[in-house]
Prior knowledge:
Layout: H1 8-14, H2 17-20, E1 31-32, E2 35-36, H3 45-51, H4 80-86, H5 90-99, H6 103-112, H7 130-145, E3 153-159, E4 168-171, E5 175-181, E6 188-190, H8 199-204, H9 217-226, H10 232-243
Antiparallel strand pairs: 1-2, 3-5, 3-6, 4-5
Helix pairs in contact: 3-7, 7-10
Amino acid sequence: MTDSRNHPHIKCYRHDAHKLNGRSHADAADTFAGVRVNQPVPHGADGDAAALSRPSGKPTQTMANHTSPYRLSLVDGESQFHHQRRQNGVKSAVRELLGETDSEAMHQMWLASDVAALFNEAVPYPYTSLKYHTLLVAALLDNYRDGHAFADLSLVVDDAETIVPHRTVYAGVEFALRIDAAVADRPAAHLGSRPRRSWASTWSQLPTHPLDTNHSKSDMVLDANLRRIRAWSTALQYLEDFANWDNRPTEPTEEIV
């Protein structure tokens, strides 16, 4: 891979570094471990990605007893603060995540990052995911830089081996998902005319699904819940958490955020 330390995506992957440190944007530092962080992302990609997971207007605290930057998991309701306490080398992992200078390598690191998944993208919305918010920002930015408008974009289902730099937003064992202009030979569903919390409707509009809902009870539950989640970063993180959860449910969850 070529050195791309000045690539616009580097700003994207570092734009919410203050959340990895548990700080507000107002208290955000300009540098972290010697690199520039917390800079604006061009083309409005950050605001559009935020609109995919959060309502517009002044944030409203949705969980009165949870005011932490650590994410709440939909699969078990547990705060990721407890996972953070069990995880070694969080600071060094954050340093590595933000210090990479090759933009494609940085994309791969965010896709695989456990540390980024510990945090929510906004404290008032604790089920959202900083990891997937950042990947959504990167995907939108890459498409916008290629001249695509939001209305041109689709959620595309790929094979697990197909990772498209900056555009893949979820990489699982069985399939991958990306944001891209419609691809004729892959299942895809349009995102709509404007960015909004539309995950459930977009997922439901896919012509074919990557889950084995005909034979697997856990896939049936996963699919049923994904059809009820509106926030994009929450849904993508739920996919990851569910895949890594040993005690998968066999009945749909009663309430989905």
